[in-house]
UniProtKB/TrEMBL annotation:
Enzyme Commission no: 1.5.5.2
Alphabetical list of InterPro entries matching this protein: FAD-linked_oxidoreductase-like, PRODH_bac_arc, Proline_DH_dom, Proline_oxidase
One Gene Ontology biological process: L-proline catabolic process to L-glutamate
One annotated GO molecular function: nucleotide binding
Lineage, top ranks: Bacteria, Bacillati, Actinomycetota, Actinomycetes, Streptosporangiales
Catalytic activity: L-proline + a quinone = (S)-1-pyrroline-5-carboxylate + a quinol + H(+)
Protein name per its UniProtKB record: proline dehydrogenase
Amino acid sequence: MLGQLLLAASRSTLVRRSVSGMPLTRKVVDRFVAGETTQEAVTAIQRLADAKLAVTVDHLGEETRDSAAATATAKAYITLMGALREAGVSAEASVKLSAVGQAFDEKMALEHAREICAASPMVTLDMEDHTTVDSTLGILAELRKDFPQTGVAIQAYLHRTEGDLRDLAGEGSRVRLVKGAYREPASVAHQNKNDVDKAYVRALRILMAGKGYPMVATHDDRIISITELLADRFGRSFGDYEYQMLYGIRTDRQEALAAAGHTVRVYVPYGDDWYGYFMRRLAERPANVAFFLRALGGK
Ligand code: FAD
């Protein structure tokens, strides 16, 4: 219930204005966001690289309806990739197509995504709400003609996902499997956590049995145990799949998996447009809301 309210608030301009203006919000946001500037992102990524963690970096922003903002987002990725090269660290990019024009000009989104692919070692397209899935998969198919390693996030909670995965589990594909973070109607997505978890396991099985490279994006220990069983069953060793987790969430678990020899990639968001991302993290876990409220109360 609280989660649903927070997801609704994540799309409210009014709540966005008041939360963004609260003096202590920034302190709490810092737990989930690596900073606002290119230099802060480079520093955070360097720190993760030193801890033997791989990175995919997200320039925060979504649902842009302005072509100047879409162009600025693409430029921000290119600038960051240049700064990372200079600093001698490598990171993949995660891109929300709605931040580069998908909502009003799909062609523009494709062109900006191409520019980002050309500047980055590897790109994964984030998946946003269900109305964008066909468009995102269409753009992915176009990008893969020139950048065959481009990956995509697929959301286990959507009823359509097993069908999509059958098309995507082939040779060379890179799929990041997530549970799904948006508020979706029952007509398109499982509503109950148990059903989502079961759907995740079915999807994971398709990916682990397939020929592509599964990116298992979760903080859920049960899913991690099941991934290990499936890796055994389908003869996948450490380099044949990877784990992904969000910046600031279960850091100890990230480090333990990396120390055990797994590739662990941390999703590092940076930039000043953190509101939607931050609210989805609060919605995922009531304990994070308590943390937020305590900080606002000065504790
Ligand atoms: P849950 O069942 O939510 O959580 C399992 C356990 O993990 C919890 O009990 C708790 O211990 C811990 N945990 C989970 N979330 C938090 C949190 N916020 N704070 C602290 N502890 C927590 N979703 C999309 O819709 N599209 C995307 O493109 C997308 N990309 C993602 C990329 C990465 C690398 C990751 C890790 C997630 C991404 N997500 C994306 C979000 C995803 O859909 C889930 O909402 C999120 O990962 C929570 O699900 P979970 O698998 O961790 O399991």
